[in-house]
Design a protein that fits this description.
The chain is an alpha+beta fold and 135 residues long. It has a single domain, classed as Aspartate Aminotransferase, domain 1. It is 30% helix and 24% strand. The longest helix has 17 residues.
C-alpha cells in the first residue's frame, strides 16, 4: 500500500493556512510583526518553514512544533534583549507560543531590532565550516 504524497506549502500564506486556528493566529501575527519590522528582508519557505533573510543570511523564522509555535532567531544567543532560550548548538535562540495572548509585540520588535544589527554568517557556514560574526 502506498500513501499519497503530502504537498508541502510553498508560500508563507499556504504555510499559515494549514495551521489550526489558534496556531494560525500566532503565525499570522508573527508574520505581520516581522514584515513591518524588517521590510527589506526577503521572506520565503526555507526547509519547510517561513524564514526571513537579510543579505541572504537567515535571521528569523517560525515553525509549528508539537504543542507550540516556535519563533527562532538564528543569532539570538548574542542578543542583549532578554527573553529567548538557547536552541541548538550554534547561536540560535527561540521563544515558544501556545496562545496569541502570550505574544508581546514590543518584545518581538526588540528582538527583531537585534536581529538586524547582530548577525552570524549562517549563509557561509557550510563553506567555511565555522560561524563568523558579520555585524
Amino acid at each position: 500500500m502506498t500513501s499519497e504524497p503530502i504537498d508541502k506549502p510553498t508560500t508563507i500564506n499556504a504555510y499559515n493556512a494549514i495551521q489550526s486556528p489558534p496556531d494560525r493566529a500566532i503565525c499570522d501575527r508573527l508574520r505581520q510583526i516581522i514584515d513591518v519590522a524588517l521590510p527589506e528582508a526577503e521572506s520565503k519557505i526555507w526547509h519547510a518553514h517561513p524564514v526571513w533573510f537579510l543579505a541572504d543570511n537567515p535571521v528569523v523564522g517560525y515553525s509549528k512544533l508539537k504543542g507550540s509555535v516556535q519563533l527562532l532567531f538564528w543569532s539570538g544567543q548574542s542578543f542583549a534583549v532578554e527573553g529567548l532560550a538557547p536552541e541548538g548548538s550554534l547561536k540560535a535562540a527561540e521563544k515558544r507560543y501556545t496562545d496569541l495572548g502570550q505574544l508581546d509585540v514590543e518584545q518581538v520588535n526588540a528582538w527583531l531590532g537585534q536581529a538586524r544589527s547582530i548577525q552570524w554568517d549562517y549563509r557561509n557556514l557550510m563553506k567555511k565550516r565555522r560561524l563568523d560574526r558579520i555585524s
